[in-house]
Design goal:
alpha/beta; TIM Barrel; six-stranded parallel β-sheet; 11 strands; binds zinc ion
């Protein structure tokens, strides 16, 4: 049985409970990015604790913290936030987010060094601590599967071959998911250990069914972001995936990685949004309780445990 690495050590798959597969709790973005868009900095342990408690009160039991080193991961702060809310498991991230955040750094660092650092974060600990990451990340740019993006994908695959930890990728606006999955599989990653994030930014159900039939998980995480389209569109795509028989290959998150998305900063919808408003809305419309349980509990458990079936 595959156990799952959290900030407090290994847990059993059945301890995951309701899982949000893609969030950010603490982010210190690169300085140049902060200058052009200050709405990425999540830099208050108190406010993050408040928001994580909101998630816990809504029934959330596991939260995946997808901040990679190139987007400003801080292991001490994330560990402190997680320890403030002991009934929630927090899973941290190794690997890299996307070439855009890395800039010239990506050209100057060798693939071997990137693999070494990623494996160290997974097996030994992050930044000299004994807190280990439980997820491997990689990502690519918008409509572009260039050499830089492929380098990050290969690094993630190599780290998977050494550690067996699951991979959650970043897609930019839901593009290049099929290409990411194909290269990861070609590099020896098992399809059912791959989740592609932000796929609901591009609600191309044909493409999603094709990817899910490869055995790969689709991450839907744009709820509450009207700027990316209405909830009716996201939920009707989700309904179509369930009706096509691939609902067992969808993970739900919310990716609220901006202070303006958090009630703790006076914004919204807040970290409890999927578990309150979206869950209620699904039940009132055309989703059953067992479908919601599959999306929020069973699918993440199967993904993290590495179960092939279901
Ligand atoms: Zn994210």
């Amino acid at each position: 049985m595959t156990e799952i690495m959290t900030t407090r050590g290994l847990i059993k798959p059945e301890e995951l409970g309701i899982t949000d597969y893609h969030e950010h709790l603490y982010v210190e973005p690169p300085g140049w990015l902060h200058k052009i868009d200050p709405d990425f900095a999540l830099n208050s342990v108190d406010k993050s604790t408040e928001e994580l408690k909101r998630f816990s009160q809504a029934g959330g039991r596991t939260l995946c913290e997808l901040t990679a080193v190139d987007f400003g991961r801080n292991v001490d702060k994330i560990k402190a936030i997680a320890d403030n809310v002991p009934d929630v498991n927090v899973i941290m991230t190794a690997g890299y987010n996307r070439p855009y955040y890395m800039g010239r750094w990506l050209a100057s660092v060798s693939e071997a060094d990137m693999i070494r650092d990623t494996v160290r974060d997974l097996l030994k600990g992050i930044d000299g601590t004994d807190v280990k990451a439980g997820i491997i990340k990689c990502g690519t740019e918008y409509n572009n599967f260039n050499a830089n993006g492929q380098k990050l994908v290969r690094v993630a695959a190599a780290a998977y071959r050494e550690t067996g930890r699951p991979i959650i990728t970043h897609t930019t606006a839901g593009t290049m998911g099929y290409e990411q999955a194909s290269l990861l599989i070609e590099q020896g990653v098992d399809a059912h250990r791959i989740t592609l994030s932000h796929m609901d930014r591009n609600l191309d159900v044909f493409d999603h069914i094709r990817i899910a039939k490869m055995g790969v998980y689709l991450g839907y995480d744009s709820f509450g972001k009207a700027k990316y389209g209405p909830e009716t569109d996201r939920l009707s795509a989700l309904r179509q995936l369930l009706d096509a028989g691939v609902g067992n290959r969808v993970l739900i998150g919310n990716d609220l990685g901006r202070p303006s998305y958090w009630k703790a900063y006076g914004g919204g919808p807040g970290l409890d949004y999927v578990l309150t408003e979206i869950r209620e809305r699904m039940l009132k419309t055309d989703f059953t309780q067992s479908e919601i349980d599959m999306l929020l509990v069973d699918n993440p458990r199967r993904f993290f445990a590495g179960e092939t079936g279901g």
